[in-house]
Amino acid sequence: MRNKIASLLLGLGLAGGAFLATTGSAQGHGYTDSPVSRQQLCGNGTVRGCGQIQWEPPSVEGPKGFPARGPADGHICSGGIGRFSELDDPRGGNWPAATLVAGESHTFVWRITARHATTDFRYYITRDGYDPTKPLTRADLDPQPFLTVPFGGRLPGSTVSHSGTLPQKSGRHLILGVWTVADTGNAFYACSDVRF
Question: 131-155 pLDDT, tens per residue?
Fold first, then answer.
């Protein structure tokens, strides 16, 4: 009888652990809502066939230190997280793209579901000649962010908005938003497909 009870409790413990692993025991953290990110497009059902990211759009958390460190080339949009690899798939260059106007001010918006002390928010954009049919690499991006918003270790609210001037670009591009956490070794990554 004791063995049966022990087996039952062990089974329940394993089932509970499996449930937490599949539902994301990390409660999510944040993603860009403007311009709309790939994970947001998956989370709101605009894009189908997204795998697990559709249930965890705020969870694209990878090593910080981009571009010197961080996710490997080809795995930047997923933050290097294998279960979110659908975000790295360029889908033949057919991700829905937000329309932006080059040289104008844009308000960038992050939705934050778990607040972290923050170093900064940085925005990178693809170089002229970027091929949207291939996975994103560092070589595809201008080497310096076009906008950096220092946060000085403060906690963000549930929504973070800041404005910046968009670079002079034309055609299809990708904006990489990086939210760098101050008190862990990680950052959050969000890829937004855009058209100027």
Answer: 999 999 999 999 999 999 999 999 9
Q: Which of 55, 24, 54, 28 is nearest to 41 (CA)?
A: 54
- For strands 98-99 and 186-195, give the pairing: parallel
Give the total number of structural domains in the chain: 1
Helix H, strand E, coil C: the string for 139-151 is: HHECCCCCEEEEC
Predicted pLDDT of residue 29: 87
Let me know if residue 20 belongs to a domain.
no
Residue 56 covered by a domain = yes
Q: Is residue 5 part of a domain?
A: no
> How does DSSP assign 132-179, residue by residue?
TTS---GGGB-SS-SEEEE-TTPPP-SEEEEEEEPPS--SEEEEEEEE
Q: d(Cα 13, Cα 7) in Å, to the nearest integer? A: 10
- The boundaries of the domain holding residue 70 are 27-195
We report the CATH number of the domain holding residue 67 as 2.70.50.50
The rounded distance, in Å, linking the Cα atoms of 54 and 6 is 36
| Per-residue model confidence as pLDDT tens digits over 14-64 | 333 333 333 333 445 899 999 999 999 999 999 999 999 999 999 999 999
The residue type found at 72 is A
* Domain assignment of residue 46, yes or no: yes
